[in-house]
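**User:**
Make up any protein.

**Assistant:**
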Amino acid sequence: MRIMGLDVGSRTVGVAVSDPFGWTAQGLEIIRINEDKEEYGLERLAELVEEYEVTKFVVGLPINMNSSFGPRARASVKYGKLLEEKFQLPVEYQDERLTTHQAERMLIEEGNTSRKKRKSVIDKLAAVMILQNYLDAHSRDTRS
C-alpha cells in the first residue's frame, strides 16, 4: 500500500510516493501539465500509479493564510476530482500553506543548488513535504 503525494500547479505537478509501510515520502518526478489546455498529465500518473501500486492520493491544498479558498485551492480540488474519476482511488487533501516556500528555503540553505536547478526540483520537494506531513499526522493517529 503506497500513497502518492501531489503538489499541483498550473504548469507542473510534483510527485512523491510513500514507502510501502507509509512512513517516509520520496520524490519521484515533476510532470508537465497545462491547465489552460486541460492537459493534466494523467497518462504519466497512471504509469506511476501502476508501477508503485498506489492506493490513495494526497493532494496539497494551498489554502490562503486567512484559511479561505482561492483560485489555486479550487484548482487543486478540481485536480483531485479528476484523479477520483480516472483512478477510482480515494483522494485526501493536505494543507500546504508555505510548503513551496519551505522547500525553496531548504534548497537555498543547502547552498549548492543554483536558481535554475531549484526551480526544476522545487515542486518535487514540495510534494515530498506535503506527503510527509500527511504521513506524520496519520501515523500519530494510528499510535493513539
